[in-house]
Amino acid sequence: MAIGGFDLNLVPALDALLEERNVTRAAERMSVGQPAMSAALARLRRHFDDPLLVRDGRTYLLSTFAQSLLEPVREAMSALDTATSTQRGFDPATETRTFTIATSDYAALVFMRPLLARLAHEAPQVRLRLVPIRLGMGDALRRGSLDLVILPMELADDLHGLPRKALFEDRFVLAADRDNPALAGIPGLDDSDRPEARAAITLDLLTRLPFVAITGEMPPLVDIRLREQGIELRVDVTTEAFVIAPMLLRDTPLVSLVQERLARLVAEQAHLRLYPSPIEVGTIIEAMHWSPRSSDDPAHRWLRTRFINHAQHVLNSRRGALAVAAGR
Fold this sequence. Notes:
Elements: E1 2-3, E2 6-7, H1 11-20, H2 23-30, H3 34-48, E3 53-56, E4 59-62, H4 64-88, E5 98-102, H5 105-122, E6 127-131, H6 137-143, E7 148-152, E8 164-170, E9 172-177, H7 203-208, E10 210-214, H8 221-229, E11 234-239, H9 244-247, E12 255-259, H10 260-270, E13 272-276, E14 284-289, H11 298-315, H12 318-325
């Protein structure tokens, strides 16, 4: 079907190319071969008389005209998804939609991983596209280029006014190698029945230990709390990945503040001992955020319900957290 000389069958390809800025990834996103996507790009270039994707070294950038298409094309795709899913009814067994979810590697591993098998069984053709947390996610939700954002409520200023639902809570603990000589004889969290455990690691000791810090485009909650309290740690290693931090501690004098659910998930493999945090960071409340325009979309509502049910039945109790850690 064509409108004004434009083949509407090219709209999904245009959307994928604008979002991915790469022919191969756009083809993978649409489950077509690279030659087919290259042919679609060639047709789009002829129609618009514009290159759309401009080579910059080994990558591609959007042309100025392509940048102007980003929001209207994404909005059109979102409206089309909503309209067609409402009209035909929603059946997870046959749904072929791709959901784009912004999440940290921590939430992906601790929350998403145990859910994937259930989603795959119930909706085998639904795809999840997980992307990193970035600035400007509120705008991305509003224009439809993101379906969900999973982020601590404490860091969600950019998402103010958007619908949200709390999923699970966590807290930060201090993680170190079990044989870290600087902490020899100090009881860990699992020795908390010993009265000296709660006050064993002082702030003074922590500031003298080599520390693995998390960095990124958005400042982590630990960094915010450290600045608020005027605390400066001895940072020897930085990483942008929450999951990497605890894995770097084995056989080193390094320590790090890690979310407890993540720390317990990898403690055996990473040879960790966990201690109460000497710094008051507060409870982390991970929540999912979405655009109001998606609230009544049947497919979107189905996914949100699965997330909520998963959080309620698996993650909101200590028993559930340990079951996830054990892979059950």
